[in-house]
């Protein structure tokens, strides 16, 4: 014996396996010609022919909030475009059917940095991507809107959503695009401009009782007029309460109060005397005051009256029409018209008696309830005199 140990079959097999596993170019991947996949390596690493372009250029400052952002693809098609601000809020947009371009669905916010990530594929499926960022302009002049009703309100069936802007708007369509209204149950809601600083929204008919309304104000970055931009982002929610519509008949000097379509009370009233007739038409309660001062000088009636403690007053027009308590009217209620245009209900001085007509009606009412006046010798109230757009036809409202 020569003293050498024989190599076992198991060790020999392991050694052969190690050589096979670590060696290059062998095995079934080579194929019969021994060339393997490495012959196509040049094609696998070829760059995509697709070219992605983003406007504005990377790093741009003071970018316009509308019309500046656009992503395009040449020699390929866009497959995805992601745009978001520094907080991760995404910008919605659409790739065209041909896949050659993308644009945002709406304006961008002012003074905001956005990042863009866009991907395109060429005809062979190879991808090309581009990442950029830019910052939008900081406005020197801005506007906001003050609105009614307030967030969380429960209002009557006649309440529109009315917003008045601090600057006159010359780009109304752009501002309207920045306001969206959804309802539950769903109903078509349209906006109407009164002048260039007020925009009201309502459905064709009074709201259905119980309707939930959500208004989203996305006005940050909206150019309302040349060089003047919105700076408001807010969600407002309100609910429509029970339906209450009260009809005042000037001839009979009676008001009929209907709750959810059923008459719940008839009340004797007094309205505008000759020469001071009460407006006809549908009027919405916009303000409620337990007590207020009414001075004829504030509405063009000189010193004809100045009552410092008018009880249970509810405003119906901007010009000064109220439905209110009257403790000085004597036997006028239901008998003759004696006011300067308001609708008077019997009351007591100080408004302490909750059983009198004015107190009862005040307690049963909410902002947004409707008071309809008919058979007056005066004309119909103007739709913009208060929240009274119901006096305009639906066709005219939508113009």
Query: Unreliable runs, pLDDT <50, ≥5 residues?
Result: 1-42
Question: Which CATH class of the largest domain applies here?
Answer: Mainly Beta
Q: With helices defined by DSSP (H or I, 4 residues minimum), what is the helix count? A: 5
CATH topology of the largest domain: L,D-transpeptidase catalytic domain-like
Instruction: Report how far apart the termini are.
Output: 114 Å
- Based on CA atoms alone, the radius of gyration comes out at 36 Å
Main beta sheet: 9 strands, mixed
Q: Could you name the CATH homologous superfamily of the largest domain?
A: L,D-transpeptidase catalytic domain-like
Q: Main sheet: which strands, in order across?
A: 23-28-20-21-22-27-26-25-24
Shape: elongated
CATH architecture group name of the largest domain: Beta Barrel
Task: Give the total of beta strands.
Answer: 28
Query: What fraction, in percent, of the residue positions are helical?
Result: under 10%
Compute the number of structural domains: 3
Mean pLDDT: 90
**Hey, roughly how much beta strand do the residues contain?**
35-45%
What class do helices, strands and sheet pairing give?
mainly beta
Keywords: Acyltransferase, Cell membrane, Cell shape, Cell wall biogenesis/degradation, Lipoprotein, Membrane, Palmitate, Peptidoglycan synthesis, Signal, Transferase
Pathway: Glycan biosynthesis; Cell wall biogenesis; peptidoglycan biosynthesis
GO biological process, one term: cell wall organization
Organism: Streptomyces tabacisoli
């Amino acid at each position: 014996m020569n003293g050498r140990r024989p190599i076992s079959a198991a060790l020999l097999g392991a050694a052969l396996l190690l050589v096979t596993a670590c060696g290059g170019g062998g095995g079934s991947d080579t194929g019969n010609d021994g060339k393997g996949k490495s012959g196509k390596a040049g094609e696998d690493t070829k760059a995509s022919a697709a070219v992605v372009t983003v406007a504005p250029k990377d790093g741009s400052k003071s970018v316009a909030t509308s019309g500046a952002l656009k992503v395009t693809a040449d020699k390929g098609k866009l497959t995805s475009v992601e745009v978001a601000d520094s907080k991760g809020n995404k910008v919605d947009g659409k790739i065209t059917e041909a896949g050659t371009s993308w644009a945002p669905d709406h304006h961008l916010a002012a003074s905001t940095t956005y990042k863009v990530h866009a991907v395109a594929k060429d005809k062979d499926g190879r991808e090309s991507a581009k990442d950029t960022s830019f910052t939008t302009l900081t406005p020197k002049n801005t506007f906001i809107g003050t609105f009614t009703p307030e967030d969380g309100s429960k209002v009557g069936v006649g309440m529109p959503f009315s917003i008045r802007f601090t600057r006159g708007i010359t780009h109304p369509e752009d501002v309207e695009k920045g306001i969206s209204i959804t309802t539950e149950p769903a109903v078509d809601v349209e906006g109407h401009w009164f002048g260039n600083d007020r925009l009201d929204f309502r459905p064709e008919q009074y709201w259905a009782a119980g309707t939930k309304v959500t208004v989203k104000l996305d006005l940050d970055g909206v150019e309302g007029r040349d060089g003047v931009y919105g700076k408001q982002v807010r969600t407002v929610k309100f609910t429509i309460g029970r339906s209450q519509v009260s009809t005042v008949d000037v001839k009979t000097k009676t008001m009929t109060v209907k709750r959810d379509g059923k008459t719940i009370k008839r009340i004797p009233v007094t309205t505008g005397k000759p020469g001071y007739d009460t407006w006809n038409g549908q009027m919405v309660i916009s303000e409620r005051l337990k007590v207020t001062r009414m001075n004829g000088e504030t509405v063009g009636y000189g010193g004809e009256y100045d009552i410092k403690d008018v009880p249970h007053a509810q405003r119906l027009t901007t010009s000064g029409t109220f439905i209110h308590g009257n403790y000085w009217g004597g036997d006028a209620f239901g008998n003759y018209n004696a006011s300067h245009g308001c609708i008077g209900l019997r009351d007591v001085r100080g408004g302490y008696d909750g059983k009198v007509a004015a107190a009862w009606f005040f307690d049963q009412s909410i902002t947004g309830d409707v008071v309809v006046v008919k058979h007056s010798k005066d004309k119909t109230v103007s739709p913009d005199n208060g929240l009274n757009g119901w006096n305009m036809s639906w066709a005219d409202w939508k113009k």
